Amino acid sequence: MSVDWALQEDPKMLAEQLVEASRDQPAWLAVFTAHLESGTLTDQLRRFLGVWGVSRSDAARLFGVSRQAVSKWLRDGVPAARSEQIADLGAATDVLLHYVKIDRIPAVVRRKADRLDGRPLLDLVADGNTRAVLTACRAMFDVAGVQA
């Protein structure tokens, strides 16, 4: 069944209709929402890997899982336990894409930074500290914090 028609509709109105139509089936809406969120996180993971120049093997090392687990996340969706990490990395990727040429981002995330005690951003990912990655990316381009 094709749902191309849905892409022509106002997303807010369509969401309201879905919520109303599923009012008597809250479990359906919960599954739909979870699947939608998982797909969004999977897209963020794909973008993180591509923009940062991280292979599946590298990602496995960074996340402390097997390469097969990363492949499964890309195929079946990011597990709920990793959703916050992937969301942080997605937001950090957005910041980098806004301020840095895409072909330079892999070098930026691998470069040792004084603000990070001489460590690259990817080390923070490996430590599981993705919130610090996002904070560091935002701080890199915080011109309000620069003093004359």
Furnish the topology, listing elements before pairings.
Blueprint: H1 11-21, H2 26-52, H3 56-63, H4 67-76, H5 83-99, H6 105-110, H7 121-126, H8 130-140
Helix pairs in contact: 2-4, 2-5, 3-4, 5-8
Key words describing this protein structure:
about 150 residues; mainly alpha; 8 helices
Tell me what the structure shows.
With 148 residues, this protein is mainly α. The protein has one domain. It has 8 helices and no strands. The protein has helices spanning 11-21, 26-52, 56-63, 67-76, 83-99, 105-110, 121-126, 130-140. Helix 2 (26-52) packs across helix 4, helix 3 crosses helix 4 and helix 5 (83-99) packs parallel to helix 8. The radius of gyration is 18 Å and the shape is elongated. It starts with 10 loop residues before the first helix and ends in an 8-residue tail after the last helix.
